[in-house]
């Protein structure tokens, strides 16, 4: 009898190269920050994070005194002094630092923060890369991150606390994946059922009638509400920038049909 051929070992995580590189960058940056002094790390965050008040002063014609007055009126007494000091430090140069609209996505507040975003990036970024390629995946991620930052700044124009994290980009990937992840399976020309990333993109009409899509969207919006306003059991060590999530999600939902290389599912079947 002929010996059986050796069994090939499948990798535990079969991630596209683009996803692996992104995860290595996000985790690597956070790991490097562990070796920085507190002062250096603080400066890094201030220089590369989104701070809406900095934008409205540099580009919106708002005066620094107006930001200070808003802080005195809207911040609790026990935090007004440190907030005023932070505002004076951040707004001293009155520089806009427009690059922060994208660089904030590479920074995270804790290991839990970066690991959670990494898990969701792997889960929803992988089918996007396999469907669209690395280039379009990066374009989609960047646009979602930028729109998340812009929407956050629009909703919080006088905010002086830095906003960081890849959640806006990840939310855009989630929205993009919802166009095809829940589409009905069909037979591939190779004689097998299609993988989710191989299926035709749903139309808006199909999506609003697809129960799985509606459940997914409902859970996503509910989770954002819970973690933004309820913050159960103290699981998060900082407030959630739900505005960045919404901005990134809407961007991914709108831009994906433009980037998608596959055609949409026909709205009706011709006789």
Please tell me about this protein's structure.
With 271 residues, the protein is mainly α. It has one domain: Rhomboid-like (Rhomboid-like fold, Up-down Bundle), CATH 1.20.1540.10. The protein has helices at 17-33, 38-48, 52-59, 64-74, 77-91, 100-103, 111-132, 134-155, 167-177, 204-209, 211-230, 242-259. It is elongated, with a radius of gyration of 22 Å. The termini are far apart.
CATH architecture: Up-down Bundle
- The end-to-end distance, rounded to whole angstroms, is 56 Å
* Rg, Å, rounded: 22 Å
Helical segment count: 12
Q: Average pLDDT across residues?
A: 83
What does the overall shape look like?
Answer: elongated
Percent of residues in beta strands: under 5%
The CATH class label is Mainly Alpha
Percent helix range: 55-70%
According to CATH, the fold-level topology is Rhomboid-like fold
User: Tell me about the biggest sheet?
Assistant: none
Whole-number count of domains: 1
Question: Unreliable segments (pLDDT under 50, ≥5 consecutive)?
Answer: 5-12, 232-237
* Annotation, overall tally of beta strands: 0
Compressed to H and E, one letter per element, the order equals HHHHHHHHHHHH
CATH superfamily: Rhomboid-like
Structural class: mainly alpha
Question: What's the helix and strand layout?
Answer:
Layout: H1 17-33, H2 38-48, H3 52-59, H4 64-74, H5 77-91, H6 100-103, H7 111-132, H8 134-155, H9 167-177, H10 204-209, H11 211-230, H12 242-259
Helix pairs in contact: 1-7, 4-5, 7-8, 7-9, 8-9, 8-12, 9-12
Membrane topology: Multi-pass membrane protein
Organism: Microvirga tunisiensis
GO cellular component, one term: membrane
